[in-house]
C-alpha cells in the first residue's frame, strides 16, 4: 500500500528520526543504555555552553566521544532507499532530526535534506562566523585541546552546528520544513518517537493539510491514531522494500 501511495503522490516528504540511523550503528541517545544514561542532559544546554569555560569543556568532552561514532557510521539500506526514491522522481525532500549526514552520503542532494537539529559534521565561530570542519576540531581535541577557540586574531567561541538543549531552532530550516510539510500529499515518518517538539509538529502540519500519513517505527508514537498506515518494523527493511516496489512500477510504466 505504501508503495502505491508513493507512486500516486505528487509530493512525498520523508521525515526521519534516530531509528533511521540506529541501523547504521549510531545509538539512540534516549534509549536505555544510550548516552543520556551515562551523562546528565541537563549539563549540556546551550546556556551552560555559553555561560562558562567549564560548560564548554564538558560539552567538547562528550563531543570527542560521540563524533567518531558518527564519522564512522555508513548509510544503511534505508538511506539508500530514500535516495532511490529521489532518483526515481518520487520524493520531494527529507526532513530529518538526525545530525549524522547519512542521507547526503547515500546520494540525496544536500538541498533536499532539511536538518532540523543541525549537523555534527560542521562547526563555526560564534564571533566571526568562520566555518570549521568538525574533523579538524576532533584533531584538536585528540591532541589535548579541551576547549577549541577560533584561530587568531579572533579567539572566539567555536560551537558545533547542532542544536543544543535550550537553543532556539534554526528559523530558516524550521520554516522550510513547515512549508514542505503542508504542501505534501504523502508524509512518511521513519524511526521517530515523535516526542521532540517542534520537530514532531511536522506530521501534524501535513495531516491537517490533507496528506496521507504513514508511520514506520518499531514502537508506538503519540501520533499513531492519526496515521493512515502504521508499519511497526525496521526502517531499513521497510524503506528498501518500498523503494524496490516503486522502482519496479516505474520501470513498467
Note down, in words, how this protein is organized.
With 253 residues, this protein is an alpha/beta fold. It has two domains: 154 residues, TPP-binding domain (Rossmann fold); 91 residues, SIR2/SIRT2 'Small Domain' (2-Layer Sandwich). The protein is built from eleven helices and nine strands. The strands form two sheets. A six-stranded parallel sheet has the order 3-2-1-7-8-9, with helices on both faces. The protein has a three-stranded antiparallel sheet with strand order 5-4-6. A hairpin with a 5-residue loop joins β4 and β5. It is elongated and about 60 Å long. The two termini are 18 Å apart.
Helix run count = 11
Biggest β-sheet: strands ordered side by side in the sheet: 3-2-1-7-8-9
In terms of quaternary structure, what is this? single chain
Structural class: alpha/beta
Shape: elongated
**In the CATH hierarchy, what is the architecture of the largest domain at level 2?**
3-Layer(aba) Sandwich
Q: What is the ordering of alpha helices and beta strands?
A: HEHHHHHEHEEEHEHEHEEH
Largest sheet: 6 strands, parallel
Radius of gyration: 19 Å
**Strand share of the residues?**
15-25%
Number of beta strands: 9
Cα-to-Cα separation, first versus last residue = 18 Å
CATH superfamily of the largest domain: TPP-binding domain
CATH class of the largest domain: Alpha Beta
